[in-house]
Amino acid sequence: MEQKYDLRVIRTYKSLTEAFLQLMSEKHFEDITINELCERAMIRRTTFYKHFADKYEFFRFFVRQLQADFDASNTASADYQNPHSFFMSIIGHVLGFLKEHEQFVHMVLSSNLLSALLDILSEQITFDITEKIKIGIKKGIGVPASPEVVASFFTGAIIHTVRWWFMEKKQLSEEKLIEEVEKILFALH
Predict the structure, then answer these.
(1) What is the b/e burial string over 1-16, where b = at least 16 CB atoms within 10 angstroms of the residue's CB?
(2) pTM (whole model) above 0.85
(3) What's the domain range around 133?
(4) Are 103 and 25 in contact, with CB atoms under 8 Å apart?
(5) Which tens digits make up the pLDDT trace of 98-129?
(6) Do 30 and 122 fall within a single domain?
(7) What pLDDT, in 10s, does the model give residues 58-99?
(8) Is 144 helix (H, G, I), strand (E, B) or coil?
(9) Does one domain contain both 89 and 174?
């Protein structure tokens, strides 16, 4: 069942999110205090603590909101009929999503939160791939291993490659990265 929020809660979350992004552009996450966040969002500390135990819980909430955006914008192929185009569409979606949120990704890169962000995205990507492979299996498409193992394997490859790409300050263009990954997928085919 979908949880409904009243407008005050929605407004509080929106204010906190905007304030958080502003503060992240000015300083490292580790240096942001709850007081600063609340002042910038124009909410009371008691309101913050009514919703979140600490700034790390708020960060998880923030990333979950990004995850919901990631889900909503997922245009990857509906099933696993053509593994090559299926995985290429997922890679394209991940890169597009990170590009859309590039400012936040760069802010996270300068803090110790990159692993947390990538773990949450990994969870979602693994779930999406697993579910789509299961749909393919129901349609009679053969899979070389269990859906969970295939999903975990490709998610790890995608996440690790994207992490490397960002950490190397994108020495390859996005197009070249996609081209290189496509070569690997063809070699596996």
Answers:
(1) eeeeeeeeeeebbebb
(2) no
(3) 65-188
(4) yes
(5) 777 777 777 777 777 777 777 877 888 898 88
(6) no
(7) 988 888 887 777 777 665 555 577 777 888 888 888 888 777
(8) coil
(9) yes
